[in-house]
Amino acid sequence: METRSQWGTRAGFILAAVGSAVGLGNIWRFPAVAYENGGGAFFIPYLFALLTAGIPILIMEFTMGQKYRGSAPLTFRRMNKKTEFIGWWAVLVAFVISTYYSVIIAWAISYSIFSFNQSWGEDTEAFLFGEHLQLAEIPGQFGGLVPGVLIPLIIVWLLVLGILFRGVKKGIEMANRIFIPLLLILFLIIVIRAVTLPGALDGLNAFFTPDFSQILSPGVWIAAYGQIFFSLSIAFAIMITYSSYLPKKSDITNNAFIVGFGNSGFELLAGIGVFGILGFMASSAGVSIEEVVAGGVGLAFVVFPAIINELPAFNGLFGAFFFISLTLAGLTSLMSITEAYVAAIVDKFKITRSKAVLIGGGLAALVSLIYASRGGMYFLDNVDYFINQFGVAMIGMVEVVLIAWILRRTNVLKNHANDISDIRLGAWWTISIAVITPIVMGYMMFGLFKLNLLREFDTESGNYENYSNAFINYSGWAVVIGVLVLGIILALTKWKSDD
Ligand code: PHE
Ligand code: NA
C-alpha cells in the first residue's frame, strides 16, 4: 500500500529543498566564515568541500530517501534493521536545532518591526542584550519569559505547524512556492542597494581579496566542511525525508546539483550584500572593516541595526527588507527540520500526520521557551555549538562510513540514482563518499574532541566562549549524550507496523 504523501511537481521539491538549505546560515554565517578564513582564498577549500562532500552526500541522501521511501529512521531500517538508530540520531539533532532556530526567527520578526522607527537606538548592542533579550549577567542563570521574544515565537510556531498540518503538497510545497521567490526578490533589492552605497567597493575588496597564508591550516578546511554541512542541511535527516516524498521516477542527481549550487549562489549573494554594507559602514564611520565584521547573532542583530541607522533614505524599509528576508529564509528551514521528526513519528508510531505535528511540534515549541527566557541566549549559543560540532559532523561521518564500508551500498545507491537521473554518477561520487569524506571528517572529529576534551580553547577556562565547566557539561555534553542515548532507545522501541 503506497499512501505516502508526494510532491506535486519537480519544481516544488527543488524549491522545498532550496528552502531548507537557504537559511540563517547563508545570510549571517557564510560571509563571516569566509572572511575569517582567507576571504577570496576560502573559495578553494569551500569549493572542494562542496564538490567532494556537500553535493555527493546530498545525492546520497536524495537517493536513500527516494529509494527506501521513509523518514530517516525508516530509511536506515530498510537498509539494515540494526542501523535505525542513526536515523533517530539525525532526527533528534533536527529536533534540538528546531528548538532554538525558531527563537532566532522570532528575534528577526521583532527586528522587522523595530526597523520602522529604529527602536534599537544608538547603542544596538545594549539594546539587543539588555532590552530585547534581557540577558542575565552569568551564563546559566535563568529568569522569566521575555514578552518581546515570546510573542513572535508563538507566531513562528503557529505559522510553521499550521503549514505542516496542511501536508507536504498543500502545506510545505505551497509555502515554499511563495516564500522562496519573495525572499529572492527582497534579497536582490538589498544587495543592489548595498553595492551602490558609497564605500561598498572597499567592503567587497576586503571580502574577496585572497589571503593565501592560511590556506594550508587545518582550521580553514574544517570551517569549509562545517559550513557546507550546515548550509546544505545534510546529515540532519531532512533531505532524506524530503526526497522520500518524490515520485518513483524522479531525477536525483541533477536536482542535487541545482540545490547545491543554488544554495552556494545565495551564500555568495549574501556575502556581497553584507560586505557592501560593511564597506559603507566602515567608510562613513571611519573605522576599518575588521572592526565592524562579526559573525552570527552579532552581525545580524548588532552591526546591521547600527548600519541601518546610518543609511541614507528609505531606512526603515531597508531594515525591514533585511529582517523579513531573514525571517523567510528561517521559516522555510524550520519547516524542513520540523518535518524531519514529524515524518519519523508518523512512520514509527503510525499516528496521523496532524497528531504527529501536534505532539512533535508542540514539544519543540515548549522546549523553545527555554531560549525565550532571560538568560536563554547563552544556552542557545552553547547548545548550537555542541549540537552542530558533535551532532552533525559525527552523524555525517558515521553515515558515509556505514554506507560505504559497513553496509557497502555505494554501488546499489549509485545504480539506483543512475537509473532515474539525467546525469550519470561515476568514480567522482564513489571516491568522494568512500574515501575523501571519511578521511577529512575523521580528522575533523579527532581535532574537535581534542579541542573540547583537553580544553584547548584560547580562553581562561579553556572552554568554548570561556563558559564554566558545569555550564559546558549540562548545556553541551548532556545534550549530545542525551541525543545519542534517546536515539538508541527509540530505535529499540517496537514498530506499530511490520516494516
Ligand atoms: N541550512 C540552513 C541554513 O543554512 C540551516 C539548517 C540546518 C536548516 C539544518 C535546517 C536544518 O541556515
Ligand atoms: Na544554507
Structure notes:
With 499 residues, the chain is mainly alpha-helical. It has helices at 10-21, 24-36, 43-68, 72-79, 84-114, 124-132, 147-165, 168-195, 200-208, 218-231, 238-243, 253-285, 289-292, 296-310, 315-349, 353-368, 376-406, 410-420, 427-453, 469-492. Helix 2 (24-36) packs across helix 12 and helix 7 (147-165) packs antiparallel against helix 16 (353-368). The N and C termini lie close together (12 Å). Phenylalanine (PHE) is lined by residues 20-21, 23-26, 97, 230-231, 233, 236, 238, 333, 336-337.
Looking at this protein, list some descriptive labels:
binds sodium ion, globular, mainly alpha, single chain, binds phenylalanine, 499 residues
